[in-house]
Amino acid sequence: MDNVKPYRNRAWLGVLPVVLVVAFSAVVPLITVVNYSVQDILDFNSRFFVGLEWYQQTLNDPRFIQAFVRQVAFSASVLLIEIPLGIAVARGIPRNRRLTPLLLVFLAVPLLIPWNVVGTIWQIFARADIGLLGVSLNSLGISYNYTAVPWHAWLTLLLMDVWHWTSLVALLAFAGLSAVAPQHYQAAELDGANRWQVFRYVELPRLRGVLTIAVLLRLMDSFMIYTEPFVLTGGGPGNTTTFLSQHLATMAVGQFDLGPAAAFSVIYFLFILLFCWLFYTSVIATAAAGMETPDRDTRG
C-alpha cells in the first residue's frame, strides 16, 4: 500500500499541465463572463453593479424562450435521427475485410470539412435555382425553397447536420461493435437468436459506453450549433432557424450588450451542463439497475 500512493501522486503531476491549460482557457474566461453578467457596462471605464437584473431579463425575454424551444427541438431531432442511423451504418460495415479501412476513411470525410464550408456546400446544394437538391425537387413538381418556407429551412438544416455528423456516431458504434468477441455471436447463433435479439442482448450492452459518449458529444455540439445555420439560412426565414448561439452573437457582437449577453452565456452554459448531467445520471442509473436485476432474480 505504501508504494501505491506515490504512484498516484506522480499520475496527478502528469495531469497537472492539462489542468492548468484548461483553467487558463476555460475557467478564467468563465469567471470574466460571470463578472460581466452582474454589471451594466456602458464602456470599458464605466460599469455599475446590477445584481441579477440581466438574468431576470433574459429568462423573461420571449426571444430567448423561442430560441430555446427551437434549440431543444433541433437537438432532439438530431439525436433521434443520427443515433439510430449511425448504429445502422456501423452494423452494415463489414469487419476484418480488406476494404473496411477504406470504408472507414470514406465515412469520416464529412467530419474533416470545416463547419463554414459545410454551410456553404449546402447553401449551394439546396438552392432552388442552381442547386442539385433544389432543382431536382422542383423538377419533380415539389415546390422547394428553404429561403422562404420555414419547414423547408428546418428540413435542410436537419439533412445538413445528419450528413455532417452521423459519421461520428457510426465510427464510435463501429469501434464498440469491433470489441464484441466472435464467441458471443456464435453462442447467440446456437441459441437461435434472430438479428434483433443479437443486437438487443449481445451488441447493445457493449455499445452503452460508446453510445453515451456519442450522445453527449452530439447533444453538446447540436446545442451550440452556430456556423452552419448562420451560413445556410442566416437564422431565417424570419427567426425560424435562429438558435441560442445566433441570438447570443447578435446581442454580444451586433448590439454590444455585454451585460445581458454575459448573463445569457451563463444561462446557456448551465442549460447544457444540466442536460448532459441528467442524461449521464440516467445512463448510470439504468446500468446500475441492469446489474442488480440478475442478483435479485438469483435470490428469488
Describe the structure concisely for a colleague.
By secondary structure, this protein is mainly alpha-helical. It contains twelve helices and two strands, in the order αββααααααααααα.
Explain what you see:
The chain has helices at residues 4-36, 53-59, 62-92, 100-108, 115-125, 132-139, 150-178, 182-190, 195-223, 227-232, 244-254, 258-299; strands at residues 39-43, 46-49. The protein has one domain: MetI-like (MetI-like fold), CATH 1.10.3720.10. Helix 3 crosses helix 7 (150-178) and helix 11 (244-254) packs antiparallel against helix 12 (258-299). The model is unreliable at 294-300 (pLDDT under 50). A hairpin with a 2-residue loop joins strand 1 (39-43) and strand 2 (46-49). It has 300 residues and is mainly α. The chain contains twelve helices and two strands, in the order H-E-E-H-H-H-H-H-H-H-H-H-H-H. The two termini are 39 Å apart.
